[in-house]
Design brief:
The structure holds two protein chains of two kinds. Chain A is of the alpha+beta class. Chain A contains eight helices and ten strands. Helix content of chain A is 26%, strand content 23%. Chain B is mainly α. Chain B is elongated, with a radius of gyration of 19 Å. Classes of the chains: A alpha+beta, B mainly alpha.
Chain lengths: 350, 184
């Protein structure tokens, strides 16, 4: 035990606290359990809200215009966004999704790579106008580029089989030569399993990974979106356009949603006037993409198959986010690539 | 009562009995006993209402809920309660004990008080609540990698503060670590 550990342990005012459950504690338990519950507790909501908060905090992308995409003569709807989304719905239905056979796994791979710097959470009312960027001894800002790879292996028998999750992260580049020696924690690796059921990286159930949940959803575009929007407003009503992201993005990006659901959702979004197609769609893994701008995020889909391939964040000068030195105005500060395939085995599962 | 309801009640009872001492200690380290007990009750009431999440999330979920509940109390009641003040209450012990260990404790108290709230919180979650980095990430609602980096920074800053107590003529070992000091 080192000095810090020992001294802090000695200073713990609760070091000798009783672990006994008293009669008073039992009274509290009974009182709590006598409290009626208005409705059954919902499963897993936190990661969606977190996604929105993170996206809002980054708030890095704004659609800059309308895309020039070859629509193949398909003219639907009044706006280019509507036409692109209707075409996406068409090709979604025609595209074969990966099929998992007995003994195989659906592997979902998400790779995040981008520039960031240390931020602090501030007490309410104490946040400065701009996050200070630590400066190294060499005078350069201490931005660093991190890369994380998440893999989810979903077994053929997704209800009873063993799900496997792996996560690897590392810092691949430092802007300043003066930086924290991350060797203690980098590269980071963790893996875990879940017996049956859909799980997330904090081991909470995620309905978006649950194939059974998708079977319960309506296939009519309007009804589907209406149903998904109920989730978006579960905690508190939010602005419709923002709610659209929370309702649609987790489904379109899950890697598990069946084609008819994704197609219906594309058609529903085609009717939303604020949904836009951003012009700066990159080539990802050799696939030409179109960028769907919705809420605070920009989702990238393969132009030929309408399959989700990733997302990116391009800094917007209006956001007052610290600029990453050396990064061009149209260069993304963060890129996520997404890939789904079928494999014959999962780590640790022989 | 249906089988599902019965199962749910049993799961909650188990969760409560296993985790109560830890959550109670967590709140009492950060607030006077009466407020701490209110926070405990509210935390488990929330857990009861969101039983499925709470049972799956376990102790980290409860810490996170207690943390939010405590923060709400402190905001609404405008109480200036900080961990540092709770720690300070133990200062008398250190000062009354004229030994090298007492000196270490006194230095540590001072060093902890020089950390900002977020740095102090992450250190205490690890050293007092004995949480893993993964669990800390759940409590603080961030990625494990982010929690690990923050913990590393907080440890380094604590070591710097210990090696450079107030009144010392030495320069900080890592001057740049202080550039992002959060006002408290």
């Amino acid at each position: 035990m080192n000095t810090i550990t020992r001294t802090l342990a000695e200073l713990d005012p609760q070091a000798d606290a009783s672990t006994e459950i008293t009669a008073q504690d039992e009274d509290l338990l009974r009182a709590i359990m006598a409290t009626p519950i208005a409705q059954p507790a919902r499963k897993q909501r936190t990661h969606v809200r977190r996604t929105l908060i993170v996206a809002g905090a980054v708030a890095a992308t704004v659609a800059l215009g309308l895309t020039r995409i070859d629509l193949g003569g398909h003219e639907v709807g009044a706006s280019p966004a509507a036409a692109v989304l209707e075409r996406a719905a068409d090709v979604t239905i025609k595209t074969a999704d990966p099929v998992v056979g007995p003994g195989q796994y659906l592997r979902i791979t998400t790779v995040d790579e981008g520039w960031t710097f240390m931020r602090y959470f501030y007490p309410e009312g104490k946040a400065p106008d701009h996050d200070p960027i630590p400066i190294g001894d060499d005078g350069r800002p201490q931005f660093y580029k991190s890369r994380s790879v998440d893999r989810t292996y979903i077994p053929y028998d997704h209800d009873n089989g063993t799900w496997v999750f792996t996560k690897d992260s590392s810092i691949v580049q430092h802007m300043s030569t003066d930086h924290t020696p991350y060797a203690e924690h980098e590269p980071w690796h963790e893996d875990w399993t879940s017996k049956g059921g859909a799980s997330t990286n904090i081991q909470e159930y995620s309905k978006y990974l649950d194939a059974d949940w998708y079977t319960t959803l309506p296939r009519d575009p309007d009804d589907l979106l209406k149903e998904l929007l109920k989730d978006a407003h579960h905690y508190a009503p939010v602005e419709h356009y923002v709610a659209l992201e929370e309702a649609a993005a987790p489904v379109l990006t899950s890697g598990v949603a069946p084609a008819d659901i994704r197609a219906a959702l594309f058609r529903a979004l085609a009717k939303e006037p604020k949904v836009r197609i951003a012009h700066n769609a990159p080539v990802i893994d050799g696939r030409q993409t179109f960028a769907l701008h919705i809420g605070y995020t920009e989702l990238l889909f393969d132009r030929d198959t309408a399959q989700y391939v990733g997302r990116q964040s391009i800094p917007d000068p209006a956001d007052d986010e610290p600029a990453v030195p050396g990064l061009g105005a149209d260069e993304p500060v963060w890129v996520t690539t997404f890939h789904v395939d079928v494999v014959d085995s999962a780590p640790g599962q022989d | 009562m249906t089988a599902d309801e019965d199962e749910r009640r049993r799961a909650f009872e188990t969760l409560y009995r296993i985790t109560l001492p830890a959550i109670r200690s967590y709140t009492r380290r950060r607030a006077p006993d009466d407020l701490a007990d209110d926070v405990v009750a509210q935390t488990y009431l929330t857990a009861w209402r969101r039983c499925d999440e709470a049972v799956v999330g376990g102790l980290p979920w409860l810490y996170r809920t207690a943390r939010f509940t405590l923060a709400n109390h402190q905001r609404t009641e405008r109480r200036q309660l900080r961990v540092a003040q709770r720690v300070t209450s133990t200062t008398e012990i250190a000062e009354a004990d004229d030994t090298a260990a007492a000196d270490e404790r006194s230095l540590m108290l001072d060093a902890i008080q020089r950390l900002n709230n977020d740095e102090r919180e992450i250190l205490l979650l690890v050293y007092w609540e004995h949480l893993s980095v993964k669990a800390v990430a759940v409590v603080l609602d961030c990625r494990p990698g982010t929690a690990a980096v923050r913990l590393h920074r907080a440890r380094r800053k604590l070591r710097d503060a210990l090696s450079d107590p107030p009144g010392s003529q030495r320069s900080p070992a890592h001057p740049t670590t202080h550039t992002a000091e959060v006002p408290s």
